[in-house]
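Why does residue order matter? Because the sequence determines the fold. Keep that principle in mind as you read this record.
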Amino acid sequence: MGLPSVCTAVGGVPEVLGSGARLVPAENTSALVSALQSLLDDVESRHYWAQQSRQWAHNWYDVRAIADAYLAMYQGNPLPDLTRQPAPPISPLRDWLQQVNQWQICPLPKVLELPQQANVLVIAPHSDDETFGCGGTLALLQQKGCHVKVVIMTDGSQGDPQGYCNEDVVSCRQRESIAALNCLGVDDVMFLGEADGNFRYTPAIAEQLTSILDNFVADWILMPSVLDYHRDHVAVSLSVLTVWQQRGCRERVFLYEIWEPVPATWVVDISAVFAVKQQAVQCYQLPLEYCDYLTVVTGLVKYRGLNLIEQSGQDAEAFLELEPTSWRRVLSHLFNLRGYQESVFQ
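Structure:
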């Protein structure tokens, strides 16, 4: 039937099924659960094991070949050659084309309705990420009476490799963060001071993040995308998602974009506060010594404004929401793509 199979490696099962099925140890519940979960969550895994089963079945001996082999053994004759040519690989392209035929002609991300009087936790790996990625949205949330708390994970110590800053780099980065967030109307900021450029998930980080989430009681969490090119951005997001999962995926989670656009599911019309965001970006004088982030941010906002084609706005920020029922599958695809990019970059 060409269906992917999961079987326990007992008795004659490995001999009969060989590489045509995914074999797991007997009496190992976790291995069985892991194998089944991967087939449920990952379409590529299902296609792979379906292909393996078809090829194995194609190469299996038919009744006549088995009977001839038995007769040859009893009669003392050489055994017949039972090898067969491998079946052609099964390509998922046809299935994908069928799916595409059912899609809408050109769906656009929906405009996200921002909450009133909510608690919104913003995770920024470095000072400036929060402003570049979702500064306009933060300004709008403040206007709607939300309590916005920004947690900046690293100390910013690697933010001045050319030595432009005349003061302590860590202090400079924190001062600029506070100034930028004040422009956006945010006055609740927390600096965790982890190693800039070498962020690692540790039990201590897990404990800190758990404490923050427990005490703040967030309704929404905003964090960078795992597609982002900076290693710290990916590590920070995965760390937060680990704690989010352990706590039962209670909050709505949105990934914002900085170095790499996200496959957006939502956009926020920030036209009314885009000038405020630009002002906040200009507070980051040290980063601006290295890159014209104002032009970069403006370009991304204008590009995302295309998603407001049915609205009156021209400036937007984009987000990908991870939902409790599908986040594992979505995150797996994103992380695999990011891993592929990493292999190409090296």
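The beta strands are 6-8, 22-24, 110-111, 119-124, 147-154, 188-194, 220-224, 252-256, 266-269, 316-322.
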